[in-house]
Amino acid sequence: MAISRLPSAGFSITMRIAVPADASSIGRLTTAAGEAGAIVTALDVVDSDPAHVIVDLTCDTADAGHADQVVKALTALDGVDVRKVSDRTFLLHLGGKIEVSSKVALRTRDELSRAYTPGVARVCQAIADNPADARRLTIKRNTVAVVSDGSAVLGLGNLGPAASLPVMEGKAALFKRFGGVDAWPVVLDTQDTDEIVSIVKAIAPAYGGINLEDIAAPRCFEIEARLREALDIPVFHDDQHGTAICVLAALTNALRVVGKQLADVRVVVSGAGAAGTAIMKLLLRQGVGDIIAYDRQGALHRGLTGLNPAWQWLAEHTNKENYSGDLAGAVRDADVFIGVSAPNLLTGDDIATMAKDSIVFALANPDPEVDPREARKHAAVVATGRSDQPNQINNVLAFPGVFRGMLDAHAEEFTEEMAIAAAQAIADVVGEDKINPTVIVPSVFDARVAPAVAAAVRAAAQNPATTPPPAADPGPADLPEIAAEASATP
């Protein structure tokens, strides 16, 4: 059975199956699953009797429909009884993915008196006398709010706050796992910019940083800019800056692999939303040769009408030749393609028209802008956002370490110097002697990443003068719609 999408652990199922107790039965199961396009990842015998064997067969499938096809294929086998099918992703989310646990014991009246009343009153008074002590004496020193209005959930669109909660829970779990940062989801039942700004300002005293997540462009730019202006803690929109940091890190090493310089390459970016805009700004700051931005309106170019202010800014500061054609034409002779948009926009034949030793970052999830198997036939380096493909470009490489560094430095803002330092730290973890076409970024499980990023960000926060200045200034910094410029942030 041919399937167009790649099987993924995100659509993993476990089937409890009874088969006849003969030597060939289990082999027939795994063969049938493979022929149906699934990837068998585990097979466990859970019970048996003289006539039957009960097994749990776990498979990665491409999507829910494909999972149903696999089940039907196994059910059709003679003597096979599929008794139960469990979706492993939904099982993992039952009851949520995070919890609050106490850092102090409350076993005796003495301990209770110090952790709560009456002893806690002394600590409250100390903070009232010196508000800066809140960072030292409360959770503020290590806590981040993960804020979303649910208007741009993953690649799924405007699902609202409740549907965004599983993503925000996951983000909080990643903060803890990789950065030792306590984070908590704050999903807001409003998509009004003024209300969001007001709510986040009101809750900010409890947090050492604000991570904005899955808020649609262009509102996300204004929200971030206004919160940065109003708050004395870092405000970081991960969809923008986390993505941009990881892309810059990956591109740094990919260019090392192909022997090209950033100043000499032409880059095509598909998707001029929050992530694409931040990527392009950071590349412009670092002196990229040229960029063509492509979105629903087509290639952004001077003279194109009906653009929002963020797109208008990009049209004025990218696309030196004022290209106005389609995406396939844009990538012709381009050195780099970066996709942060939608699946299946390009074919392998399109990639074949790119410059020699081309680089393709197709980051749409779960299905990339071009099939990575086809892209690898023509491009020198291919990366995706998928965990089951080489060169996974994933924001978890950046945001835990970025916030760890900012919290440790008691930083009051996130800056462009921190972004550049973080990207360089991620790239350097791989090591120039280790990089190759299939290894341009470290694994998300590489224990060196978060500490290296945290150290780099901490150094940039404490002594920004040591961070190399940006190589190019993409333009005015005072447009509210491109709020990332407000504090020299990419």
In short:
The chain has 490 residues and is α/β, with parallel strands linked by helices. The protein is 38% helix and 17% strand.
The share of residues in helices is 25-40%
Tell me the count of domains: 4
CATH level-1 class of the largest domain? Alpha Beta
What's the total count of β strands?
Answer: 14
Biggest sheet details: 6 strands, mixed
Describe the protein.
This protein is α/β, with parallel strands linked by helices and 490 residues long. The chain has four domains: 8-93, ACT domain (Alpha-Beta Plaits, 2-Layer Sandwich); 108-138, no CATH class; 141-233, Malic enzyme, N-terminal domain (Rossmann fold); 241-462, 3-Layer(aba) Sandwich (Rossmann fold). 38% of the residues lie in helices and 17% in strands. The protein is built from 18 helices and 14 strands. It has helices spanning 25-35, 64-75, 88-93, 109-115, 120-129, 134-137, 161-179, 193-203, 219-230, 238-258, 274-285, 309-317, 327-331, 348-352, 372-375, 399-408, 416-430, 449-462; strands spanning 8-20, 39-48, 52-61, 81-87, 143-148, 182-187, 209-212, 235-237, 266-270, 290-295, 298-299, 336-339, 359-362, 381-384. The strands form three sheets. Strands 11-10-9-12-13-14 form a six-stranded mixed beta sheet. A four-stranded antiparallel beta sheet has the order 2-3-1-4. Strands 6-5-7-8 form a four-stranded parallel beta sheet, sandwiched between helices. Helix 7 links the parallel strand 5 (143-148) and strand 6 (182-187). Helix 7 (161-179) crosses helix 16, helix 10 packs across helix 11 (274-285) and helix 17 packs antiparallel against helix 18 (449-462). It is globular, with a radius of gyration of 25 Å. It starts with 7 loop residues before the first strand and ends in a 28-residue tail after the last helix.
